[in-house]
Amino acid sequence: MTFKALNRTAFEDALKKGMGKALRHVEACSDDGVEDIILKGCLENPVFDRQCNGGRGKWMMAVLSHARNPQVYYDEIIGALAAAEDDDAAHLADLCLELALGGNIAAKNALYAKFVSDIENYQYLSHHIVDLNGVEGLIFSASHIGHYLAENPEYREDNWFLSHYADKLGKDNVTKAFDQAAQTDRGVHAYIDRVMRTDGYLLMSDEPEQKRRTFRPKTIFSSYKVIRSKRSLVVPVLAAGHLMRTSKNCLRP
Question: Could you tell me the pTM of the whole model?
Fold first, then answer.
């Protein structure tokens, strides 16, 4: 069955909605005559509600793979991330993540630079760092978030982020990494302390069943316990018995 090429208006509508016929159009016709529409779809978030519909990074990368010169779009995406805000930044970060996973060093560097410079919006950027670099990315994210939280004592940080990646990356890997990092990295220690102060438990699975929030997913990670001391902060103790103590001064970045 021969595919009938879309006109510009139909293609723009299909691309914005993430419809299959937009992808079929570029498969058949490349990006001839619709370069500006595709570029706009890269630089501006096309999703009405990202929380409900998710991102469209993988799909847009599939569209770009059929362009005559994909690198032109890649360069624009990477260059635009630094100044982007809100949903546009999240969309560009999705695209940069796909590029970085494919080996694009410039995209990887742009993601890290955006995370550090826009740390107040770490809620969405931290996931890209961890999805890109696993446990190493998790420690990097926790360290920078911890320093930021230490400067903003009024902010809360629950245990969802760490619990989610403990499940995803493996509890033993995460446990070992945080046990080691928290002993020397003030940011990681500050992050752990804020989670403890917010939820009382480092991981969701540590919470008693009756206290768990029904809307949060459960994990099977239960390696940490809580010790309270008049002279120490609330600190995590690994099941293996390794104790991490610190003074309040250690939480200052």
Answer: 0.76
- Average pLDDT of the chain is 80
Determine the Cα–Cα distance for residues 71 and 243; give it in Å rounded to an integer: 50
Of 32-46, 184-198, 223-237, the range with the lowest mean pLDDT is 223-237
Terminal-to-terminal C-alpha distance of the chain: 63
Neighbours of 39 (CB within 10 A): 18
Q: How far apart are CA 12 and CA 22, in angstroms?
A: 8
Q: How many residues does the chain have?
A: 253
Confirm if 39 and 28 have CB atoms less than 8 A apart: no
Query: Measuring CA to CA, how many Å separate 9 from each of 15, 148, 228?
Result: 10, 45, 63
- Token pair recorded at residue 246: 């610190």
Q: How far apart are CA 60 and CA 253, in angstroms?
A: 39
Query: Which among 3, 94, 105 is positioned nearest to 41, based on CA atoms?
Result: 94
- For residue 49, the model assigns a pLDDT of 66
Amino acid present at 117: S
Average pLDDT over residues 224-251: 35
Q: What is the mean pLDDT of the segment spanning 223-244?
A: 35
Q: Where are the beta strands (DSSP E) in 28-68?
A: none
In single-letter form, the type of residue at position 105 comes to I
